[in-house]
Write a structure and sequence with these properties.
The complex is a heterodimer of chains A (366) and B (396).
Chain A lengths: L18 H9 L4 H27 L18 H13 L7 H19 L6 H21 L15 H27 L4 H16 L2 H15 L8 H26 L3 H9 L4 H31 L11 H9 L8 H30 L6
Helix pairs in contact in A: 3-6, 3-12, 4-5, 6-7, 6-9, 6-12, 7-9, 8-9, 9-11, 10-11, 11-13, 12-13
Chain B lengths: L19 H34 L29 H34 L4 H15 L3 H13 L9 E3 L3 E4 L2 E4 L1 E4 L5 H27 L5 H19 L4 E4 L2 E3 L2 E3 L2 E3 L1 H27 L3 H9 L4 H31 L11 H13 L2 H30 L5
Antiparallel strand pairs in B: 1-2, 2-3, 3-8, 4-5, 6-7
Helix pairs in contact in B: 2-3, 2-7, 2-10, 3-7, 4-7, 5-6, 7-9, 8-9, 9-11, 10-11
The chains are: A mainly alpha (366), B alpha+beta (396).
InterPro entries (chain A): AA_ABC_transptr_permease_3TM, ArtM/GltK/GlnP/TcyL/YhdX-like, MetI-like, MetI-like_sf
Pfam family, one (chain A): BPD_transp_1
GO molecular function (chain A): transmembrane transporter activity
């Protein structure tokens, strides 16, 4: 009988349970059915990706000034390149673009401040974004004061208009949505039914009919001789539509706050607006942020509909550029570019909202 | 509520705005007054404006001749038809593309949603790639892509793509063979109905027997065989009384068969693919919402995997899935109004578009269009409430 006096050296795990081979075995080839699926998936990827990459990168033309610089074997990004300023700023005067850039930069800073959890003074920055920034942006973009040239709204377009529509629609819809949500939970029957009818009406009809209504019926509602800017009409339609959706998101958040919170506040002698403004809404709003971001994403995508009533948002201006006789036949490039821009915005926002949901939703992990 | 102390113990009576009931009453009266004043103002302005433009209100225009043709219609329609008929044609086209869109989106959505949960890494990645790409691109852009970049870029009729020389795809649309039914074909739908009734009876009987004796037949397979097999059998027995009208190239265009216009194809594809990405997420989260303990408990009872899914996971997941699913269906129906951007003759396009432009009856036309969508959403939410009440958890 032998006795081992030394510790046996730890042996490496068997080759088929660690490392890339094991990973492949477990995740891709764990059985005959899975192997077939993996091979099918690989084939699908090959069929879809090879021509796409060849078209978009390998055979594509990047530099040039006119369609003659394109070989037509792959994508002609020259078209997008030549039109880039227009796609982003619309028909905004070329000498005044710095104004748009300042607005873009301020907006980016404010949003980044709000999105990064570590930075302080969130409440003030949020207030600035919701109240001061829209006023500032309007005066800078429209001009007419401080010696700035007036730029009529029909020259606004492209990505800039898309962002304006989405942000203004959102900012204007937030207070209306809060009031509607509170009204829908009210004890007063008339207030409650008014809010329910208002919310369900705007939620029940497609945005396009609302935009049609805003563009053909709104002029009829106003006194004779008063005319409203086309952009403002679209904004009114979008705000009404968005406030109904926002109200439902906020109502969901309000429902998540235990009744005891409101009762405790009432016991301290607080009135209705104090209870709501200081106790219930601050707690509820925090929970609602993912929902609000999600409605913002759908609003951002829905702003493309304004091209049907004749405004040139990002998609509208791409569509208009496609019918330029000097650049016929580049529909695919134009759409891919527009899709890429929208995708970047929506995807990053949805990732942010998922991150927030994970942060707020702890303890239910499987 | 506590007992309210008598007023005289507190000194003078508080002013009326301290009384909650009176304040609520006042507030509501003010709201009604404000809304009424707003409506009166709008109606007054509208009447002035209409008078100034010489437009007469009323629905009389529905009986006038429309005078324009429509590219696709499910009922008899010509340019001699009335605006009322235009409305019906548009409504039917909306319902057609919505119904087909709902079916396709559900099928794609369930497949992608389940694939998203696959243990196979590649399949799960592919599914999540699909979801992330298509739900983050605006629907209108996707419709334009399919219409202008794909279908409008198809070859002319002479160089059509063809599938076995029976199905053709070119710039004018998709051409399918049309079945022509001869006499004696009426038997087949009849046997189909009989087979369905028989399978329902079989399923009920099988369930009763299962509960009473614990024995069960594979009722699903038997029903499938009945529903597919019986009509087939009759079809063969009656000597296949169907001929196919295959589309044929004559001159510059195809004749015969069924033509599906490219506008319909583009709208249908975009709606289905876009909505499917949302449905896939709903399906995934519905399945994940079932606590793992449920599956483990079912396995502990040594139920086979098939029954674990069918009797434990799926019924519970459906309870979570169906409410958001119906709201996606509603979104799809509302989104079908984007047809107007590519000229598919749906309700918004032919009625709120062409009819409005020709008659100028903005108020009537827009209200009718909105009313249609409102009625559809009302019906769907009634169904949802009924369904929620039916499947709601009965807790102790």
């Amino acid at each position: 009988m032998t006795v081992q006096h030394k510790m046996i050296e730890a042996r490496p795990a068997p080759g088929n349970t660690v490392g890339p081979i094991a990973w492949l075995r477990i995740n891709l080839f764990s059985g005959p059915v899975n192997t077939v699926f993996t091979l099918l998936g690989l084939y699908l990827l090959y069929v879809l990706l090879t021509p796409t990459i060849q078209w978009a990168f390998i055979n594509a033309d990047w530099v040039g000034t006119s369609r003659d610089d394109c070989s037509r074997e792959g994508a002609c990004w020259v078209f997008v390149n030549a039109r880039l300023t227009q796609f982003i700023y619309g028909l905004y005067p070329r000498t005044e673009l710095w104004r748009v850039n300042i607005v873009f930069a301020t907006f980016a800073v404010l949003i980044a401040w709000l999105a990064i959890p570590r930075l302080p003074l969130k409440r003030w920055v949020a207030l600035a974004t919701l109240v001061a920034f829209p006023v500032f942006a309007f005066f800078l973009l429209y001009g007419g004061y401080f010696g700035l040239r007036v730029v009529e709204t029909h020259r606004w377009g492209g990505l800039m208009l898309t962002l304006i529509l989405a942000v203004v629609g959102m900012v204007a819809a937030l207070p209306i949505g809060i009031l509607l949500a509170l009204g829908r939970r009210s004890q007063m029957p008339i207030v409650k039914s008014f809010c329910v009818v208002f919310i369900e009406f705007w939620r029940g009809v497609p945005l396009i009919t609302i935009l049609f209504m805003a563009s053909v019926m709104l002029p009829l509602f106003l006194p004779t001789g008063v005319s409203v800017d086309r952009l403002v009409r679209a904004l009114i339609g979008i705000t009404l539509f968005q406030s109904a959706y926002m109200a439902e998101v906020i109502r969901g958040g309000l429902q998540a706050i235990p009744r005891g919170q409101e009762e405790a506040a009432a016991a301290l002698g607080m009135g209705y607006w104090m209870r709501m403004g200081l106790i219930v809404l601050p707690q509820a709003l925090k929970m609602m942020i993912p929902g609000i971001v999600n409605t913002f994403i759908s609003l951002f995508k829905d702003t493309t509909l304004v091209m049907i009533i004749g405004l040139f948002d990002l998609l509208g201006i791409v569509q208009a550029a496609l019918s330029d006789s000097r650049w016929l036949g580049f529909a695919l490039e134009g759409y891919v570019f527009a899709a890429f821009m929208f995708w970047i915005f929506c995807f990053s926002m949805s990732r942010y909202s998922q991150y927030l949901e994970r942060k707020l939703h702890t303890g239910h992990k499987r | 509520m506590s007992v309210r102390p008598k007023a005289h113990t507190l000194g003078p009576k508080p002013p009326f705005w301290r009384d909650r009931a009176k304040r609520a009453l006042l507030f509501q009266v003010l709201l009604i007054a404000a809304v009424a004043a707003f409506l009166l103002y709008i109606i007054g302005n509208t009447q002035d404006n209409l008078a100034a433009r010489g437009i007469t209100t009323g629905f009389g225009f529905l009986d006038r001749t429309a005078g324009f043709g429509i590219g696709q219609s499910l009922i008899e329609y010509s340019s001699q038809s009335t605006y009322g008929r235009t409305f019906v044609v548009g409504l039917l086209n909306t319902l057609l593309v919505s119904a087909l869109g709902v079916i396709a989106a559900t099928i794609i959505g369930f497949i992608v949603g389940i694939a998203r949960l696959s243990p196979n890494w590649l399949i799960a990645r592919l599914a999540s790639g699909y979801i992330e790409i298509f739900r983050n691109i605006p629907l209108l852009l996707q419709i334009f892509f399919w219409y202008f970049a794909v279908l409008r870029a198809m070859p002319a009729a002479r160089d059509s793509y063809s599938l076995g020389e029976v199905i053709f795809l070119n710039v004018r649309g998709l051409y399918l063979p049309e079945p022509l039914f001869e006499s004696g074909f009426g038997l087949i739908p009849l046997t189909f109905v009989v087979a369905i009734v028989a399978s329902i009876a079989l399923v009920i009987w099988n369930k009763r027997r299962h509960e009473a004796t614990g024995k069960r037949l594979p009722a699903g397979w038997i029903s499938l065989a009945l529903i597919l097999g019986l009509p087939m059998l009759v079809l063969v027995a009656t000597g296949v009384p169907v001929t196919w009208d295959v589309p044929e190239l004559r001159g510059f265009n195809f004749r015969g068969g069924i033509t599906i216009i490219p506008e319909f194809l583009a709208l249908w594809l975009a709606l289905s693919i876009y909505t499917a990405s949302f449905i896939a997420e709903i399906v995934r989260s519905g399945i994940q919402a079932i606590p793992h303990g449920q599956t483990e408990a079912a396995q502990a009872l040594s139920l086979p995997q098939k029954l674990v899914l069918r009797l434990v996971v799926v019924p519970q997941a459906l309870r979570v899935i169906i409410p958001p699913l119906t709201s996606q269906y509603l979104n799809l129906i509302k989104n079908s109004s984007l047809a107007t951007a590519i000229g598919y003759p749906d309700l918004v396009s032919v009625f709120a578009g062409t009819t409005l432009n020709q008659t100028g009856q903005a108020i009537e036309v827009i209200s009718m269009t909105m009313a249609v969508y409102l009625i559809i959403s009302l019906l769907v939410s009634m169904f949802m409430n009924w369904f929620n009440a039916r499947v709601a958890l009965v807790e102790r």
